Amino acid sequence: MKTINRSKIGKLMAQEEKRFVQEHPKSKALFERAKSSLLAGVPMNWMVRWTGPYPIFVKSAKGACVTDVDGHRYLDLCLGDTGAMFGHSPRPIVDAVARQMSRGITMMLPTEDSIWVGEELARRFGLPYWQVTMTATDANRFSIRLAREVTNRKKILVFNGCYHGTVDETLISLSKGIGVPREGNIGPPVNPAVTTKVIEFNDLDALRAALAPKDVACVLCEPAMTNRGIILPERGYHDGLRELTQRSGTLLIIDETHTISCGTGGYTAAYGLKPDIVTLGKPVGSGVPAAAYGVSQDVADKILAKINADTTDESGLGGTLSGNALAVAAMRATLEHVITEENFQRMMPLAERFAEGVDAIIKNKELPWHVVRLGVRVEYRFTPTQPKNGGEAESTKDPELDRLIHLYALNRGILLTPFHNMALISPYTTAEDVDFHTKILGELVEELT
After folding, report:
1. Concatenated DSSP letters for 160-202?
2. Are 218 and 251 spatial neighbours (Cβ–Cβ below 8 Å)?
3. Which of 226, 286, 289, 305 could form a disulfide with 93 if both were Cys (CB 3.0 to 4.6 A apart)?
4. CA 116 to CA 207: how far, in whole Å?
């Protein structure tokens, strides 16, 4: 196999940064202004993670494209890191939100839309009862609380390299076999090892040992990991996971926030999983803040009395904006018109085309890279084989090359997800868009080899 000429990376990066600054003067001016009132110059700190000396400021976004304040139009393969996975401002969502805005935004009372949403989520994911939240973080936090109530256990279990929002218990990593606060975790309230067991994904022996004491309330996991890049489950892993959790009396929570890329019912429906709880986030309202969690009949039977008790604002569940009329209207329109079989039938072949284009470059240049696809989510990594867990994925990172690819693509009109080389295919993405990315990646590889 051939390798990248490392000496060229720094030189190209300097050229690309100079080009970026020359072509984005208005974004630079806004960033400088923002630093006087916004912490780190952005309204949410992740926004500084984009490659380049400063983030671009957006003027508008529609379908699969973003336009910045300097007038540059981009093919958006990030799509709000899944928040706009099915496109920016789809017409049915805009119309539904506009109608509901005139009828009322939040009343702390249910609307008929909420029933439709609950029935549809039950049909898609096979769990009978649902609640609506504002974020997937909330959905995961509330699900953990339910698991602790049902099992009368305090510990939870997650996988090294997981991502479940800003849930305190999940901000944990493995270091020499020991759970420690994740690097960069700001102000952890307690050492997460007090609340959480952490093991590697795809390791049933480690899972069996961790669950053996029967002190774990729930396993919280993505069915395929996405935070350290796409890590697919090995054959038989989910069967073993379900068997071991049931045997130990541990609830299984599947977080489908990213893996809804696999189909209208996420990975759960696509592969016939049988979790006790499912959580959903970002894409379910097409970018309008909304999320949800669904529970099995058994879980519902065990917690309904407390749900109905007169401890509304003391239970640790819910919030006055959760399930508001506007969010639920956006969810209904998204499920009815956007997250549809018809759209997936269009998106899946384009995702395959994207992966095939990248794979052809890798093989043509004999690079020690690989490409992996999870439904309409595609990623390429700088190793010859796919990592099987978070530890392996972390050890193979190449931040220098990663940053160059992102900035090179951005300067030529393509936005990749800033945290890794991940692309999402929306219903608005075209074959020409996919081929454009292949062309740009091929040109960069040609310069580096």
Report:
1. TT--BTB-GGG-EEEETTEEEEPTT--S-SS-GGGTEEEE-TT
2. yes
3. 286
4. 38
Instruction: List Cα–Cα distances, 340 to 116, 133, 353, 391, 433, in angstroms.
Output: 15, 22, 20, 35, 21
Best CA proximity match to 266, nearest among 233, 223, 232: 223
Instruction: Band the pLDDT of 16: cuts 50, 70, 90.
Output: very high
User: Cα(198)–Cα(296) distance, rounded to whole angstroms?
Assistant: 25
Q: What was the pLDDT predicted at 218?
A: 98
Question: What are the b/e assignments for 198-219, b being 16+ CB within 10 Å?
Answer: bbbbbbbebbeebbeeeebbbb
What is the token pair recorded at 225?
């990991």
Which pTM value belongs to this model? Answer: 0.96
Query: Which domains can be identified in the chain, with CATH numbers?
Result: 91-337 (3.40.640.10), 341-365+415-449 (no CATH)
Q: Is the pLDDT of residue 57 over 90?
A: yes
Distance CA(218)–CA(45), nearest Å, equals 30
Which runs of E-coded beta strand occur in 240-297? 251-255, 277-280, 291-295
DSSP state of 296: -
Whole-angstrom distance, CA of residue 350 vs CA of residue 378: 10
The residues that bridge with 132 in the sheet, in sequence order, are 292
